[in-house]
Amino acid sequence: MLIKESIKLFTTFFLCLCCPFLAQAQTVDPDFFNQTWYLYEIFDSDTNETFTVEGYQPYGGNPEIEQINPKITIDDNLQFLGLGICNTISGTLEKDAISGDFRTITTDGTSDACGFFEDMDEPYIFGPFANIEPDPLLYTIVDPTVTTNSDGFQTMTYTTQPFLQYTYRNTPVLNTPENDLATVAIYPNPAQNVLHFQKTATTELALDVRIISVSGQLVQTNRLEASQKSLNIAMLAPGLYFVNISEGNKSSTHKLIVR
């Protein structure tokens, strides 16, 4: 185990044993939850290198790729949904009651080929959300912090083992094309047996639809051709789900109640 993690665990044990009045649960900023965080950079303190999302061109511009838009959304039930380079991810976090740190306990995602170098970089971008640490005492999203900037937007940072710091903002990076698929709506909601999709004239491609349970499990996946406007959901048990819809590099996520 890393030295700093050992120190952290010892400190937590000492506080709980000797100073229980100090070992109070750390409060996580409520703004950490229920909004979309766009990844800006990853700093590796071991190599002193920074991976920057803005201007990411793994082939030196030949060929030139469209600006990537990695992002993560975490709700207050600790369910998360995210986008890497071309793949999506979903799962569940667990919170340490004392430190306020988090660890991933379930994770699932697509596995499409994004490109030679992109496929190597995407796990790095997903970071701790894509990995379940086998040590139940090791929390891998450490010291999540939200600050409000002078431009009115917010920055969220956390560190993860062993040497990485992730920086997000609640606004997309510059030069990012519109990646939120606001041109598709779902109805009815609550739904039973059939879910309909309302598209605008600008939505001309096929839609990839992923339905995810509140525990982070992918329970249904479908591809709707441009002419299709409904989806059979009769196999879904009653409850709350997330519906992730993607069209090319655009995506949106909706909450769905199934009766």
Summary tags:
Lipocalin; 259 residues; 2 domains; globular; Immunoglobulin-like; disordered N terminus; 9-stranded antiparallel β-sheet
Notes on the protein architecture:
This protein is mostly beta strands and 259 residues long. The protein has two domains: 3-169, Beta Barrel (Lipocalin); 184-258, Immunoglobulin-like (Sandwich), CATH 2.60.40. The chain is 10% helix and 42% strand. It has helices spanning 3-18, 116-126; strands at residues 36-44, 49-52, 71-74, 79-83, 88-95, 102-109, 142-148, 154-160, 164-169, 184-192, 194-199, 207-213, 218-224, 230-232, 239-247, 250-258. The strands form three sheets. Strands 1, 2, 3, 4, 5, 6, 7, 8 and 9 form a nine-stranded antiparallel sheet that branches. The protein has a four-stranded antiparallel sheet with strand order 13-12-15-16, with no helix packed on it. It has a three-stranded antiparallel sheet with strand order 10-11-14, with no helix packed on it. Residues 1-23 have low confidence and may be disordered.
Number of strands: 16
As an assembly, this protein is: single chain
**Rg over alpha carbons:** 20 Å
Highest CATH level, the class of the largest domain = Mainly Beta
Please provide the ordered H/E string of secondary-structure elements.
Answer: HEEEEEEHEEEEEEEEEE
Q: Structural class of the secondary structure composition?
A: mainly beta
List the helices and strands and how they pair.
Layout: H1 3-18, E1 36-44, E2 49-52, E3 71-74, E4 79-83, E5 88-95, E6 102-109, H2 116-126, E7 142-148, E8 154-160, E9 164-169, E10 184-192, E11 194-199, E12 207-213, E13 218-224, E14 230-232, E15 239-247, E16 250-258
Antiparallel strand pairs: 1-2, 1-3, 1-9, 3-4, 4-5, 5-6, 7-8, 8-9, 10-11, 11-14, 12-13, 12-15, 15-16
